[in-house]
Amino acid sequence: MIISIASGKGGTGKTTVATNLAFSLGKNVQLMDCDVEEPNSHLFLNPEIKDKQAVIAPVPLIDEDKCTWCKKCMEICRFGAIAVVGKKVITFPDLCHSCGGCMAVCPEHAVSEGDRELGDIETGSIKENLFVQGRLNVGQVMSPPIIKKILTLARDGMVNIIDAPPGTSCPVIAAMKGADFVLLVTEPTPFGLHDLALAVETVKILKIPHGIVINRAGMGNDGVKEYAKKEGIPILMEIPFDKKIAQVYSRGELIVEKMPEYKDKFLDLFDHINRLIKDPGDKGAGFK
Amino acid sequence: MKIAVTSKGRNLDSKVDPRFGRAAYILIIDTDTLEFEVVDNAKNANSFKGAGIQAAASISEKNAEVLLTGFCGPNAFKTLDTANVKVVSDVAGIVRDAVKNFNKGDISFTDAANVEGHW
Ligand code: SF4
Ligand code: SF4
Fold first, then answer.
1. B97: CB partners within 8 A, 6+ apart
2. Full-prediction pTM beyond 0.80?
3. Whether the predicted pLDDT of A230 surpasses 80
4. CATH number of this structure's domain A2-28+157-278
5. Rounded to 5 degrees, what are φ and ψ at A20?
6. Burial level of B96, CB count in 10 A (0-12/13-18/19+)?
7. Hey, which residues 6-35 in chain B have their CB within 8 Å of chain A?
């Protein structure tokens, strides 16, 4: 099973939900941190990292002896990553999306594949559970290949919890695709609602069952609840706006460890997710 | 000599467009006769990425030897440099005056990008 935990923007508590849910389940769990620009779930879970592998993507290499400066490569590249000026071809590896277009189109076979390191993936364990995290190299902008690679490590028969990157563009879609359920974490504020609505649109396009967790409940207004009701999206959990929770978080600790009464709430959340995967119409106890 | 000037309009009395890749127009001007050709840069201006690179390639194609503009990013600069097009940045005001100043030699060439690229 794959549960992807996402939010329209950063800092809403996505990692809090992912790490506390993983810890509450306690066994047969794999946490997959796909927030590759800033993976931080390791700070809360202290995994033992055992292996690290580079993620490589091809970039064009030009053989100037074969090139006839026909510009076909430049014309096909949507990303402006290749330019033919006079009798020279320049490439911009940082802009390249490794689509292979220039290699396919070159009539002189002057374009070959060079390697560029996008980032790396680390794997390890937390007691008997598994941990994976990806990290984008500084200066690189292409995170989807790293995220897709992480997702290939999802294990059948385990609960794979994905800490998705913030936002609603390609990287998040990569971290939602293939998930059995998407949990959307939001704050009950107008900003939170705005980003939540964008995230909901994305999940709907992907046709994945989904539900909402409201973090810092009690601040802000009722906008998120009204929206959820209107859209028929279940609110599966509310984590209150509480000084003690904020302190636990800022010390890099888990809520369920310091406030054990939360463990049952996270287990209830998991039960409800399970029911919704089986029957997306299940309104359960959490539906408000 | 032919030079390229980024411009907000289609003639010499327009204002210099401070942007390079996303300039509205690029005028390719003969510095002796002041005859010019208008390059409509709308396609680049709206392009997803690499606007500066495309604009740089197109002015090199027009055989411009110098570019007068406001800001030039690193990728565009690299392309212009490869194409042997010299860059004068921080140019402002009316295109005609910019060319006049250029002809007087009242300019200095840039040897690096003066603005960060944006993603
Ligand atoms: S591989 Fe694709 S994105 Fe990269 S330079 Fe070639 S055409 Fe452009
Ligand atoms: S398509 Fe091939 S031959 Fe044509 S300019 Fe590009 S590298 Fe050179």
1. none
2. no
3. yes
4. 3.40.50.300
5. -70, -35
6. middle
7. none
